[in-house]
Amino acid sequence: MKTRRTLAAAGALALAGGALAGCSAPAAQESDDVLTLWHYEGDNSAMGIAWAEAMEVFEEETGATVEFEERSFEQIRQTASQVLNSDEAPDLLEYNKGNATAGLLSSQGLLEPLDDAVAEYGWDDKLAPSLQTTARYDENGVMGSGSWYGVPTYGEYVQFFYNTEMFEQYGLEVPTTLEELEEVMQAFVDEGVTPLAEAAGEYPLGQLWYQLALSQADRQWVNDYQLYENPVDFSGPETAYATETVKDWVDRGFISGDATGLAAEDAGTGFINGTYPMFFSGSWWYGRFLDEAQDDWATFLFPGAEMSPGSSGNLWVVPAASGDKDLAYQFIEITLRPEIQALMGDNGGVPVAADAADLTNESSEELIANFNTLLDRDGLAFYPDWPTPTFYDELNAGLQGLVNGTLTPAETNEQLGADYDAGLPAGVR
Known about the structure:
By secondary structure, the chain is an alpha/beta fold. 43% of the residues lie in helices and 12% in strands. It contains 18 helices and 13 strands.
């Protein structure tokens, strides 16, 4: 394999409307072309495994070389605007979806519209309509309409991972209601075990907060929060319940006060090594847990809620400054082929355009079934930080204050509401 790989940092199944049309591979050819590619998926993640295979296929078929750099999520998030507005921009990169991320870059003219490539390759036919929301953005960078600025190749959602051995040790069953969930967590606390692996320094606690709000919300509230259809009252029942419940769970020992200083990696490894019996986070951990978790584990959706954080996965985006857009489009197409999608699914990912007959790993069935359950009930509610470019950091800061006791629930909601309103696009304030 000719791929040039630079480590710049340490770094699931919804079937599309029909099977992909078969594509015969062109003969390998010699080329001096180079595709520069960035993504932040680990080597042993489902996406990392599938995309590594896609790089090999791409090089064999095109004769071009892939110059791949693994950048961390935070590196790309914090520097994208500057890098993509320079001659250092790659030809293709993985980028977070949503108004505050891909939407913002599209409104700044930093991403290439993909409408012609979508028509040429038929990507709109390969992706379920509910997964196309995060691929399209209007002139203000608001998702759901306008031109295509990204292409998802996987789905994702947030759920509970639980240590089945610890549940069996203490005679506990998987909860089916919020009341039962709290009873399970209290049982662990009574045994001196902190039940939830959490991190307020990065996204996990924000996603739990949002899930608690969703447990009290309907689709209109999600549309108001994410798509600005109506103003959002942060003292209203949805966010008030979420913030008060997080505080209550900290006070009851369900969440450790140490979570204020922890990152997502800390929470994930805490679950991997068996310190915590439960972890509420994204399906992107699934492949890693298959590979690294010390005890047996399984998953369940948040009990008693119709909606959960989730969407299409992150997007392939093509910078406007890309030096070889055609090569970028060819690579995207390869990552949507059935054999690459099946490889992703067999390694714990949520493929969006796979042929079910190609899948061989039965351990992924639960992951895929949960995602399909959410799709069937219109349950993908996106993510809490999407509405504004700064709300990711602001939500983390507010919840850190809530957990360490420097902010009351009312003060947290007031601060978050002010941050949210201040960051909204000018046209919707």
